[in-house]
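Message: Study each token:
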Amino acid sequence: MQNKLNVIIPQDRIGVIVGEEGKIKSTIEETLKVELRIDSECGNVEIITKPEESDAESLLKARDVVNAIGKGFSPERAFRLREEDTILDVIDFREIFGKNESDISRTKGRVIGRQGKTRNMLEELTKTDISIYGHTVAFIGDYESTITAREAAMMLIEGKQHSTVYRFLRKRRHEEKIKKITELWEPALK
């Protein structure tokens, strides 16, 4: 039985999904055992499992990879989604600001920061990949890191000062390090 999903992506990202000489499309199809049918007129990408490879997990991973590329990630970064425990999370500014383009533009600028500093700090301190594209900010990483990056982005969207957000991220990173050390040493202490 074939399963299928549809993803709508911006037309200017169709070429990225196809890739030079179809290489990106082929890589997605081969590694995730799906078929991609791309309608470049409307940006619809139909993702279909191959009959002999009916695997819902591959279908969902392919959807996430295609969606990530559509949200502005490079194929290399989007391919991280093929890994176990790696997720895609998206904040749509239109859900917060409606169609107010000036608020969306201003907020995107806050998340990007001067010369990309804020985005780079978010990526470094959360170990996630972040893309600000169109009317969205998207995150790729493990569950905990992605949740932390989302929280930090929401703080910026709500108008918190950058220094407050950086402090929050450093504190969260310190807590994660303590947690990992505790998990490593806990069996030895028993």
Observations:
- The chain is about 55% helix and 20% strand.
